[in-house]
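Help! Submission page says 'invalid entity' but I think these are all valid:
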Amino acid sequence: MSEQGFTQHTGIAAPLDQANVDTDQIIPKQFLTGVTRIGYGKHLFHDWRYLDLKEQEPNPDFSLNKPEHKGASILLARENFGCGSSREHAPWALADFGFKAVIATSFADIFYGNCINNQLVPVALTSEQMDALFDAVKADAAITITVDLPAQTVSFGDVSFSFDIAPHHKTNLIKGLDAIGQTLELADAIDAFEAKQPSWL
Amino acid sequence: MAKTLYDKVWQAHIVDQLGDDSLIYIDRHLIHEVTSPQAFAGLNEKGRKVRRPEKTVGTMDHSISTRSLAIDACGPDNALQLHTLAKNCEEHGIQLYPVGHQKQGIVHVMGPELGLIQPGMTVVCGDSHTATHGAFGALAFGIGTSQVEHVLATQTLKQSRAKSMLINVNGKLPVGITAKDIILAIIGKIGHAGATGHVIEYAGEAIRSLTMEERMTVCNMSIEAGAKAGLIAPDDVTFNYLKNREYAPKDQAWDEALAYWKTLYTEEGASFDTVVELEAADIAPQVTWGTNPGQVIGVNTPVPAPEDFTDPIEIESAKKALSYMGLKAGEKLADVAVNHVFIGSCTNGRIEDLRAAAHVAKKGKVSSSVTAIVVPGSGAVKRQAEAEGLDKIFEEAGFEWRLPGCSMCLGMNDDKLVSGDRCASTSNRNFEGRQGRGARTHLVSPAMAAAAAINGRFADVRDYQE
Ligand code: SF4
């Protein structure tokens, strides 16, 4: 787990104007055979991004391949982003590709938690706000978007939207805390809990 | 205040309250080769130990071949992953049931078989179908690899409380309608993200009448409705299933456990954030037509048109799904030809599933245009099926009989489809490319899959029940 914190990020966005983008699409199963957390970015959105299995022919129609979105560090999507499997390879691939934040209408639960644990900031906005973001990027792909975590805002041009995030998620992202290290400090409470457990467990 | 089953299990596991978050104790942790290597690597990097190795159990299921017991049968990358799991379990003192072991199987099939899952437990696994175990009245949910590492190191997880949803399936289940049809009908009704942020409790007469294996099929696909977990209150069906299983409590411990398990139900008057009602009588055999499990219809319902939906997102995804699936609005499923049939997975790879499929398989031969495979969910299922002669029934009908594993449910092995293939599958996900790039998956029950194999196209399984 990364221990670098996230406060604010400004970058250009790649629009993925689709609902229900599942983790099988984000990183298909044939790339899950690794035993490390690195190197998944090149396979991100494999089926959509490449016309061939060997990843030699980029699909020119896919958003991430368009020259105007090159270098995007913010991904825009719609409802229920990251649904499906619990594979953490999905946020690993997004982060490895260079994304720092995903802004979508809503997220699947496990994926959302996995993002928090990997310093990839998941921002949920309303569908009207997402429309405005998609429109802005469509009008000018070079428009920069700023995600400010302490302020809980997404801003671009002269527009600013605020978003909700649970306080503990926010703290973990900002401080880049070692979650396991924190819990290990509660060893006494865990010991006490275990001491009270019934014999059959 | 009256408590729900979820309230009871949740409250019994709070180790510490950390603001809005609770530190929850984890009673059972299941691991497999795909989502654990990075967790162990993380532990090793920091020199951390597994806190309670005896509460974690491992198996090999995703990256293995169902044709060969050789660990490298699916190539060097898969072999490295399997060897890594073996090495990690060995180093950290974790019980592992590797390929070829008689207790090996898909993690969500072998776990319950061994009695590892008991009412009131908290159960996690780096796998979204961990929801399966909610069938025992355990709070069971899938986690990411960072959380796998957290559980290994601390036997706990930080969690916030989910919302609660009650789904009542009222009345008696009609003949020919299975647990798979119930859960697909539920997802069809509430939508593919309909239960996001919720823990579901399934109740009602139709649910209570299900066997333990059928309950597992229902809970298994809770995640396909977006839920965090799915629960069914334990009862005599549960207790009878557990009695004498290897990891189940014995003797006096059994009596104590049983007394506790009997307290695990939702009290009269407890409230839920959301309540959904379904009538069992209205459920027909289900077939998915689209690319998410919510895009599902009864076998005799025509394929919908994008205009049939009102929500702009659903209209858009219906258009995309029809094009990916190569289907036309108004088409009858009985006219749609399949060239592959897959019977297996953690949803429908248990003995009762194989019996239901064999019952239909007996009535014909696999169509010459179809390749059909049957993959038992575990070594125990395979042995039981062979003892009952089901393997012979399948083979005589033209199905291939395989070794246990996840197989074509996700094709991380050598069981995959190619572009344009159309598969009637008893698994749980029909996402684009799930069973192979460009391949089309239709989710159905085991009996419906067997009927499709014989017919070469979808058929109403009720025509096969005498
Ligand atoms: S059978 Fe399919 S859904 Fe179940 S654990 Fe294996 S890959 Fe996952």
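Support: the input was valid. A stray whitespace character was the problem, and the output above is from the cleaned input. The domain at 11-142 of chain A is CATH 3.20.19.10 (Aconitase; domain 4).
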